[in-house]
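Follow-up to my earlier ticket, as requested here are the two runs.
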Amino acid sequence: MKSPADNAFMRFSPKAVGIGAAVITVLVWASFIVIARASAGHTLNPFDLAFVRIVGAGAVLLPLGWWLVRREGLAGWLGLSPLPFRLTALAGLFGGLLYAMLAYPGFFYAPAAHASVLMPGSLPLWTTLLAAILLGTHITPARGLGLLFIVAGDLLVGGASLLKAFDGGEVWKGDLLFVSAGVCWSVYSVLVRRHALDPVKATVAITVFAFFAFVPAYGLLALLQLVPSRLADAPAGELLFQMAFQGVGSVVISGITFTKMIQYFGPVRSTMITALVPGLSALGAVIFLGELMSWNLLAGLAMVTMGIVFGVSVTIRPQNQPAR
């Protein structure tokens, strides 16, 4: 039975759906990086942000999951996830819980421009390696050249901060967290392709797992003041905004569009396309956050852009041709 998203997407051609999903995903991801970095200067701490992200997404997706399980007669986990427990746990661990718990702390150490290059910028590398191992995906020469450029861009940015770690700096901590978050999202990307997961069901599943694995425990610890939470100190407007953007925007909307993009382009080409995010979000960081662009950041962005040219433009094919 078709999901609500599938019924809506049926009005358009597969190509239009794939391209539209890619555009929405890139714009939301770029905005996520700028807003998450700006949020580091406000009230909530990293795990508070993860908490409100999951709560915001859960407010929309848990009722949807309950409806899907009953409408389709699924034996879903807890009657809320439309996927079996094993898939729910795997997808939810990497695409929901770990991603949020690694990405948000990174913004408290490193600037948005570093996140721009190291988080979405590292996706093609990890996804290509995982897809080759788990899916038997062939790495073409053009894609390999694109990956080399993207990796070089990552090293120009992350390598510089790692060297500064010997001087007592902390930016490298954020860089490592960003790369780790990228690895987690790559695992989720390959799981989506390997199991041909429906966009809505996959997004519901990762939210159900993250919600029950994190929200009750963290909420109780915060209430008992056993963790350094600032949820009680945050203005209502900040909490509502973060729930709406981090939860509904970054999880619900981009989660569905990213999964739909994978269905059309495949996991490797999809994460190549998201390499557009670094340039857009770095530019947004300069405009909205007043961040400065050092030579290594500019060079890293240039290398990632070259990776897009070689890795995407010559390899994208419609889904009805074999994904490589």
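Run two:
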Amino acid sequence: MLNRWPGFSEVASHTTDFADKLQKKLNAAFEADSEFAILEVSSHSIAQNRISGCEFEAAIFTNLTQDHLDYHSGMESYFQTKRKLFFPPYLKEKDGICVLNHDDHWVSKLSSDLEKRSSLVSTKITESEFENDDFFFVTDKKFTESGSTCIFHTPREKIQLFVPLVGEFNLMNAIQAITILYKLNFSLKDLSKSIQSFPGAPGRMEKIQIDNDVVLRSLPTVIVDYAHTPDGLKKVLQSIKKLCEGKLITVFGCGGDRDRSKRPLMGSIAEELSDQLFITSDNPRSEEPQKIVNDILMGIKKREKITIEIDRFKAINESIKFANKEDIVLIAGKGHEDYQILNDKVINFDDRKIAYKLLKEKNKSQ
């Protein structure tokens, strides 16, 4: 994660800072003439009162899927924690804007609690037009390796959008961001123009490309993504599979000292949607890496297309060597992270830099 405003940028140690640091940074951003503050608010930060003192003009509910169950007692507890963001003292009581992803099944539970809010709106990705003053939705969606196109409908107008991000889940994230800015009186035309040049978040469906001045030979497409939950991995693989003309090759592991129950689920999803699997380490922390792999294997039905390589560098190397030009290699789990946590050591490790280096080597050797 990054903290940034005019004249300042740093890598953040937490998704949402603790209250004392957060307030200092918000004040520094204000003094640098920032007009808006956009925060990713984690469930941990809500439970630990890190956003105390913050009153939000607007809040987005993206989705709720299995994650952090090593911290929360279950999905209901996880939901109840997230739910707090949409009510005072965090969201303004009278005109605080709520934007909800209507395609997520937890939304019905939240929207019924919020139905009296005049500023409640929902977003939806659909196949046909419908009339509802509370809905912002898209139709005519098309997905390519370079991004997504669609018609974006508001209750009053519509516009063609190009979002330079891969996958339906990225399109939903984009239209929720556009919706909230539109509700804050930004021009839909300006928003449509601005998002065309959005570079994407580091390590989120990031395509690794080697230098333009290199003579390219038969190289596979390599994508690095942060997907580290069952739902996240499923959505990424489903999005890539629609674009893949050859084999879909997945490299992934699961973090240590975290929710063990998601490991076999991720193994099952990866097996179902991949043509070849390289199961490796993520951030094992204090856990034995092989035990984590064994938990993942509990969800695997057949071992024929599985390669187990605990060393993450070797696993990435083997996957790229294995891949042909038409194939896509997904390196999942760590995304933007530039480190790996091995017991009590933190080592430099960046999936993107490693993939870049290995692609250049493969290009030279051909």
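The only thing I checked on run two: The chain has a mean pLDDT of 91. Let me know what else you need.
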